[in-house]
Specification:
Number of helices: 1
Strand content: 35-45%
Radius of gyration: 18 Å
Helix content: under 10%
Structural class: mainly beta
Largest sheet: 6 strands, mixed
Length: about 260
């Protein structure tokens, strides 16, 4: 039901954070952002929850130039694997990945890429696809930063990209996954200080949105909250579905960075 969860005992926890899941080519793929070279970019998992392959990949544009990226988010449509991500100008660490590094305004882009080959060694960015936002900073009433994109399809066949901005989530819509997502003057806000780092899914015509929320009432720890919407334009009510107490018997354990997909097996 999307509300009640239990840990899969066969799965051994991995180091890292903000992982994302996709079911592709009869395997469960876990995208794990590279951190100091200690983890692969993609882990292929079988139905027994065993890691069967690990992949490192380069992200390139249509000219063959390498790109930096953070916050990979995987999605499968029409048997094609897509990866949305936040573009970074440098391949190495940066001072401010999500914002303008105190030099507002600036543009930040979410790009969408597809694998160039079956061995996942390269992903190529799709030209003119994704999202570009002008960040003007909180002082001017604009956004300070954006991060953590997530894509899923709506009931009418269009696609929505959820984007995190602190404890807020904004939604952008496109008729096609490989085109630009529309940016209106009045941004469509899904979460208003109710959590960020979103993951969305369409289930039986309903939109489920999960967010990472810093819960002051629970003693100041991160929990995962959920809201159910009839339309992406609804004003949702979020409620906690996962926390340290429910999963580990310890309310002080942080639970966050959700990624959801339909059970594949």
């Amino acid at each position: 039901d999307g509300d009640n969860w239990e840990l899969i005992e066969e799965w051994q926890a991995l180091g890292g954070s903000v992982a994302d899941l996709a079911y592709y080519d009869n395997s469960l793929l876990m995208f794990v952002p590279m951190s100091g070279g200690f983890r692969p970019n993609i882990i292929k998992i079988n139905s027994c929850f065993e890691i069967v392959e690990e992949f490192n990949f380069d992200l390139i544009d249509s000219n063959g130039e390498k790109h930096g990226y953070v916050d990979p988010s995987a999605y499968v449509f029409d048997d094609q694997l897509y990866m949305a991500h936040l573009y970074t100008e440098e391949l190495g660490p940066a001072v401010d990945l999500t914002g303008c590094d105190n030099n507002y305004p600036c543009d930040k882009s979410m790009y969408i890429a597809v694998p160039k080959n079956d061995d996942f060694t390269e992903f190529e960015i799709i030209d003119n696809a994704g999202l570009t936002l002008e960040l003007t900073g909180i002082g001017s009433g604009g956004l300070m930063g954006i991060s953590d994109p997530d894509i899923f399809q709506l009931a009418d066949g269009s696609f929505v990209m959820l984007v995190s901005s602190g404890s807020n989530v904004y939604a952008f819509v496109s008729d096609s996954i490989d085109e630009e997502f529309k940016v209106e003057n009045d941004l469509l806000q899904v979460s208003k200080d109710q959590g960020g780092v979103p993951s969305g899914i369409l289930v039986d015509g309903k939109i489920w949105v999960y967010v990472n929320y810093y819960d002051y009432n629970a003693g100041g720890v991160d929990v995962i909250r959920k809201a159910v919407l009839n339309s992406i334009e609804d004003e949702p009510e979020f409620y906690t579905v996962l926390d340290g107490e429910s999963l580990f018997g310890n309310k002080d354990i942080i639970v966050g960075s959700p990624s959801i997909l339909l059970w594949p097996w």
